[in-house]
Amino acid sequence: MAACSFRRSIASQLSKILDLPPENLIKSISAVPVSKKRLIPADFQLSIDSITEDSSSDHSAQDLQLRAQMLAEKLKCDAVVTEISTGPGTVNFMINRELLAKTVLQQVLKDGSEYGIKSELFSTVPRQKTVIEFSSPNIAKKFHIGHLRSTIIGNFIANLKVALGHQVTRINYLGDWGMQFGLLGVGFQQFGNNEKLKSSPLQHLFEVYVQINKAAEDENTKKLAKDFFRKLEEHDEQTLSLWKQFRSFSIEEYIRIYKRLGVHFDEYSGESFYQEKSQEVLKMLEEKGLLQKTIFGLQLLQCFLSKCRKGTGIVDLSEKKDLSSFSTVMRSDGTSLYITRDLAAAIDRMNKHNCDTMMYVTDKSQSNHFQHLFQILKLMGYDWAERCQHVSFGLVQGMKTRRGEVIFLEDVLDEARSRMLQNMASAKTTKEIENPLETAEKIGLAALIIQDFQGLLSSDYQFSWDRALQSRGDTGVFLQYTHARLHSLEQMHGNEQLTDVNVACLQEPEAISVLQHLLRYDEVLYRSSQDMQPKHIVSYLLTLSHLAAVAHKTLLVKGSAPELAQVRHNVVMWLKSVWGTQGVLRYGSVRPALELLREYAPSG
Ligand code: ARG
């Protein structure tokens, strides 16, 4: 990685002066972000604060500044560093311009699609086995925006981990069990249609479920539903076979729709797998003395507050064992609950995969649930509970389609596509393309994903189709457009990358900015891989796209002297290479819309 050799070189000089091993310094040296108002004439900086171990020392701005100056005075320029300066609490380093261009060029060529990933920043990160559960919709119920977010965020994390050399198992844990299947079974007997179940299972089952829910007020229907579910639990052949059809047709349809998003799973698991195993969990809890059945007195008061009945099974989670915090794990009739099935599923997953990390991606409304889950596992003596992680995200308001409220994932995907198609058709400059529907789909989905990935995952946001699909501004449309433009430039001028181009020609500030930005890529990847936030990569790519737009206007290839044209064209190819093989395209599974017309054009 280009940045590595520079960081190493700076660290080695610093290490002699500071008497610290260079490895300890490398992570304190970071590439300076490119911004419109770039005031520091530097490519890298060392923050004095990050190398100060002594917590008792004075950290005032004045002191940091003084120490930065003292350190800078001891440092010397060399073949790599041509200028050393100081900023507020930082020592700044400028790299020899020709060396900068040459190194970046060589690295992009050498690493190709691995650019950034091969950085030594990742060398100390152990390669791990991760099981990640995401999407996890409920059969016959709404696929809401929370499921969509879980799907794209889980996919992003899984893709990023795989790219960084980790072993990843993707699990979809379906809501495929519970009383709702009793009702659905009865509903299907009354309103179901086998043809419709085969051709559009998700929609049909949802409709049946809505219909039977209306009828469920009636005592007789309630009783029938109870009977159906009891037969299901007793594995009555006929009942089970109908349920199996619900499940398998639904999965077939899910697979087809996920494909549009570039998402796949290694396992379709579900709550139904853990009926019996959750009874074993209850037994284990009992044996370990963790299961308490509610009686009278204090317990009753506590449980009254959370509406549990006498005989309900609970696990005390409070430190003082005073039931100030507890989790309900068993109904009074002895049947399991959502959390009991999750306990069984977690134990099963760990037995099967023996992984280093187990992740669950859901919205933050389930934070309590997962906290309880991990706490109970810990109480049961599973130390690996500490390696379980709930990746939670914020709630999204206002996602609607023209048909109204979102019920199916497919509606959202269709809506993104049709809105984009309309935008393309109304843009006068749109050139004819072969498959407009497919192009609209690729751009529309990119827009959806980028809007979602722009902020912190934990933030709530207000969804807006108009904002997401804007062609100007920081959107997925703009990113797709940039990539298409770079691609078409590459087609126009060929994609032969030469190593012996005269890099000394690259002196314009616009070219230097591109180089500086490329230098930072490994740090950005590293950040996203540490905190699991896609926003670092997204904002990196947006800046890259703005820089590409500026470079496109200023660093003209056409009409320049051959030597200059060649090196400038190389800049295009570096950008394309980083854009195309990395970032959202790769980790968000966004398919590039290469045929996206040049004129449908936002500016930089
Ligand atoms: N099916 C659940 C829902 O829609 C999400 C499942 C989350 N995963 C889990 N292991 N509990 O709310």
Q: What's the short story on this structure?
A:
The chain has 604 residues and is of the alpha/beta class. It is 53% helix and 12% strand. The model is unreliable at 597-604 (pLDDT under 50).
Descriptors:
disordered C terminus, binds arginine, 604 residues, globular, Rossmann fold, alpha/beta, Gyrase A, domain 2, Isoleucyl-tRNA Synthetase, Domain 1
CATH architecture grouping of the largest domain? 3-Layer(aba) Sandwich
**Percent of residues in helices:** 40-55%
N- to C-terminal separation? Answer: 28 Å
Give me the count of strands.
Answer: 16
- What kind of sheet is the major sheet? 5 strands, parallel
Task: Report mean pLDDT, rounded to a whole number.
Answer: 87
Unreliable residue runs: 597-604
Can you characterise this structure?
By secondary structure, this protein is an alpha/beta fold. The protein has 3 domains: 2-95, Gyrase A, domain 2 (2-Layer Sandwich); 129-287 and 335-396, HUPs (Rossmann fold, 3-Layer(aba) Sandwich); 447-600, Isoleucyl-tRNA Synthetase, Domain 1. The protein is built from 23 helices and 16 strands. It has helices at 2-18, 22-26, 61-74, 97-111, 145-163, 179-191, 194-199, 201-215, 219-233, 237-260, 275-287, 298-305, 338-353, 367-379, 409-426, 436-453, 465-468, 476-493, 509-519, 521-531, 535-554, 562-581, 583-587; strands at 29-31, 44-47, 81-87, 90-95, 129-133, 167-174, 267-270, 291-293, 313-316, 326-330, 357-363, 388-393, 396-397, 400-401, 404-405, 461-462. The strands form 5 sheets. It has a 5-stranded parallel β-sheet, sandwiched between helices. Helix 14 links the parallel strand 11 and strand 12. Helix 11 packs across helix 13. The longest helix has 24 residues, at 237-260. It is globular, with a radius of gyration of 29 Å. It binds arginine. The site of arginine has 8 residues, from strand 11.
